Recover the amino acids of this structure.
């Protein structure tokens, strides 16, 4: 290895050590950060957690691209949100919308978000996470009776029923436990 | 700047070691539940459970849902993907140590006749570490294929982080193996550091992409 390369390695090493404290908000921040970012960024916004966690699991914004959140989170769309009325006052809606768009999959450096961003880069933006190619593929082998036919799950949209650490943004295979079928696929 | 090769190697390998070491520390922080002797002893014992909960437990038991549901789920400590992770980190650490113990550059061009060159060490610390790194690299590839087969999908394109991880990791492992092989086959010291270092770097990048 040439002297130049070694100097670069050295610099990179120093940066890595110093940068550990930096957040992963930017490419540089991600590059020199040691925190694990292979999952999805957990939700930190209290308002988002409260309002969007009322009827279902508060999906991390990193599970859909910004284009999807734009379609979902506007006053008109929320009047009929998958058959429910999920209207919010103007301020709340603005805050939730901004939070979701800022942390959307295509703006995140977390691995699963990057995969979701790639999977949705072309074509119509999906309204459902469960329609994203990557998410669909990951669940295609789970029989219906374990999901819809399972009284403790009911729908694939209820991520947190099977993903025991979904609230931390962790969806790893090792953390999956399907209610009433604890040994499925493990 | 004139600083000796050994020192520079040392700094570079320290960086690699730091990378894998810190990463390990980060991970080791996860809480580990070690069953206490008492719980193992009393767990399955009906008498103990009844004594704790008194009579109504006995009635409920007939209709109770299986015990497995009530226990809180804990991710397994030993899983295939954990094995893959630690093997990959070990490979990088071993590669770093191999770099650290390198005896010096071999000769490629205008070399003195073999009789005048330094004697080859084929079973010194450096060689042993290099072989261990190459072996670990192969084991990492194997566990990666076995445990993350379904993460590699061409339909996601080449820029998919998992796909890049596979390509860089494989290239890195092959480069390390090539370097070991090149040196092992040669009768005189031959330079092979660039290949091995490139391999280790590729693996570091591969790990970072899916870290």
């Amino acid at each position: 290895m040439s002297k130049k390369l070694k100097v670069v390695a050295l610099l990179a090493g120093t940066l890595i050590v110093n940068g550990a404290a930096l957040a992963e908000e930017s490419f540089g921040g991600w590059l020199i950060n040691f925190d694990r970012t292979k999952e999805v960024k957990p939700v930190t916004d209290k308002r988002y957690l409260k309002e969007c966690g009322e009827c279902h699991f508060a999906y991390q914004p990193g599970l859909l691209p910004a284009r999807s959140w734009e379609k979902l989170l506007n006053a008109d769309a929320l009047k009929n949100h998958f058959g429910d009325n999920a209207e919010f006052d103007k301020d709340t809606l603005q805050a939730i919308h901004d939070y979701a768009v800022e942390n959307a999959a295509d703006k995140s450096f977390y691995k699963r978000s990057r995969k979701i961003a790639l999977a949705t880069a072309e074509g119509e933006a999906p309204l459902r996470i469960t329609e994203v190619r990557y998410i669909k593929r990951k669940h295609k082998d789970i029989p219906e009776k374990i999901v819809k036919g399972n009284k403790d799950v009911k729908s694939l949209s209820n991520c947190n029923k099977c993903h025991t650490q979904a609230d931390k943004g962790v969806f790893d295979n090792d953390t999956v436990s399907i209610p009433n079928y604890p040994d499925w696929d493990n | 700047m004139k600083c000796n090769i050994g020192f520079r190697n040392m700094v570079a390998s320290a960086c690699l070691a730091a990378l894998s070491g810190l990463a390990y520390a980060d991970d080791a922080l996860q809480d580990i539940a070690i069953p206490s002797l008492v719980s193992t002893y009393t767990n399955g014992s009906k008498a103990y459970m009844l004594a704790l909960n008194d009579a109504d437990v006995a009635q409920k038991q007939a209709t109770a849902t299986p015990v497995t549901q009530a226990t809180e789920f804990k991710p397994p400590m030993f899983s295939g993907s954990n094995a893959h992770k630690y093997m990959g980190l070990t490979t990088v650490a071993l590669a770093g140590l191999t770099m650290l113990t390198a005896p010096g550059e071999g000769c490629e061009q205008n070399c003195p006749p073999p009789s005048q060159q330094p004697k080859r060490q084929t079973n010194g610390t450096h060689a042993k570490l290099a072989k261990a790194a190459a072996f670990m690299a192969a084991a990492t590839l194997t566990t990666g294929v076995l445990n993350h087969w379904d993460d590699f999908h061409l339909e996601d394109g080449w820029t998919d982080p998992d796909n890049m991880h596979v390509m860089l990791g494989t290239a890195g492992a092959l480069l390390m193996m090539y370097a070991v092989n090149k040196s092992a086959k040669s009768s005189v010291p031959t330079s092979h550091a660039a290949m091995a270092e490139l391999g280790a770097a590729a693996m570091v990048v591969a790990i970072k992409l899916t870290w």
Summary: Residues 21-44, 57-70 of chain B have pLDDT under 50 and may be disordered. The interface with chain A takes residues 1, 8-9, 11-12, 14-16, 18-19, 22-23, 26-27, 68-69, 73, 75-76, 79, 81-82, 150, 153, 155-157, 159-162, 193-194, 197-198, 201, 208-211 of chain B (CB under 8 Å).
